[in-house]
Amino acid sequence: MRSYQDLFRTPEFTPLFLSSALQSAGQTVGGLAIGTLVYAATDSPLLSAVSMFTPQLAQVLGATTLLSAADRIPPRAALTGIALAYGLGTAVLALPGLPVWAVFPVILLLGLIASLGGGVRWGLLNEILAKDGYLLGRSVFNMMSGLTQVLGFATGGVLVAALSPRTALLLSALLYLLTALGARLGLAARPPRASGRPSIAATWRTNALLWSSRPRRLTYLGLWLPNGLVVGCESLFVSYDPGSAGTLFAAAALGMLLGDVTVGRLVPPAVRPRLATPLLLLLAGPYLLFALHPATPVAAVAAALASVGFGASLVQQERLMALTPDELSGHALGLHSSGMLTMQGVAATLAGSVAQLTSPATAMTVMAGASAAVTVTLVAAGRRRPVPEPQPA
């Protein structure tokens, strides 16, 4: 599969793409609204960051309990149900008079429900496309995510400033309902990819199998840690510059879009594997400039440049799929998605804690330095030969 036209001619690709775009827009507008609402009520960088990323923290619960369902339930029903649950939960968050403490249980529950989403969606994408089309298809989804974030943060920022965070939350709930409708009407009724009933035991067995391979293990860590630590930097945009947070988020999304276009479409396949480490270092480097407390225009350029480095995830996902049996693709991609989002939530909490004790700019610098250090450590670990197991006499 060599072109974007080939992708959109593939049955079911377009409805999956459009429903995912609506969901991404809903998450973008809703996340900014929640972060702004909580920061206005508490004046706390920590609580603001945690409110935006608590759904990601819940992903670890789903990854250890629910993830076996990603390959064992019909994908259309799963995606429709997840979107409906998010629409209802977001409408609850928009209720007038809802106390701040009540926000966190709701978004924690939504994150638990959403933990299936990545495995179901990316497993279905892997099923819809030919084997050589996954990376190109995933790059289009990442580009769509970047574009909807640019538009969503810009629109959300206008709604929050001109109307209210609760109005933005109602728009987000509507977008989730449209997501559910698009998935139900546009996708075919496919059977589950794997047999058997979902269970916690099945989830643990498959997680252990995937984790037992050292190359897969290092690939997972590379997908989760450097990325997550840099998202910790992004979680502080609201507290770093409350009046221009939407601009900073939009700039970061634009950079991610450019990185995905470059890696997914322009870079030759033979060159891609060599780009993972440089892109991960680029992801962290520009955030070190925040030690100088740059003004909004400079901060926006730094965020955009850094986010080009998110293109590394495409290279790493291609490697993960090459290391994984087809029948485990949904679970493997779900584990990647859940682990990545969990790490983003952990990093947001850590970044908020450091910012609470120091300042948002200092915390962003610390998180960027940690991301670069982790990348270098993983590269060194990948170059070491594994110790051979002793053979029986």
Helix content: over 70%
Radius of gyration, in angstroms, nearest whole number: 20 Å
Sketch the topology as an H/E string, one letter per element.
HHHHHHHHHHHHHHHHHH
Spatial gap, N to C terminus: 50 Å
Explained architecture:
Helices cover 76% and strands 0% of the residues. It has helices at residues 4-9, 13-42, 45-57, 59-65, 75-93, 100-114, 117-128, 134-162, 165-186, 200-211, 214-234, 237-240, 245-266, 276-284, 296-307, 312-322, 329-357, 360-383. Helix 4 (59-65) packs parallel to helix 6 (100-114) and helix 11 (214-234) runs antiparallel to helix 18 (360-383). The protein is globular and about 50 Å long. The termini are far apart. The relative contact order is 0.17.
Quick overview:
This protein has helices at residues 4-9, 13-42, 45-57, 59-65, 75-93, 100-114, 117-128, 134-162, 165-186, 200-211, 214-234, 237-240, 245-266, 276-284, 296-307, 312-322, 329-357, 360-383. The chain has 393 residues and is an all-alpha fold. Helix 8 crosses helix 16 (312-322).
Keywords:
393 residues, mainly alpha, 18 helices, 76% helix, globular, disordered C terminus
Write the layout of secondary structure elements.
Blueprint: H1 4-9, H2 13-42, H3 45-57, H4 59-65, H5 75-93, H6 100-114, H7 117-128, H8 134-162, H9 165-186, H10 200-211, H11 214-234, H12 237-240, H13 245-266, H14 276-284, H15 296-307, H16 312-322, H17 329-357, H18 360-383
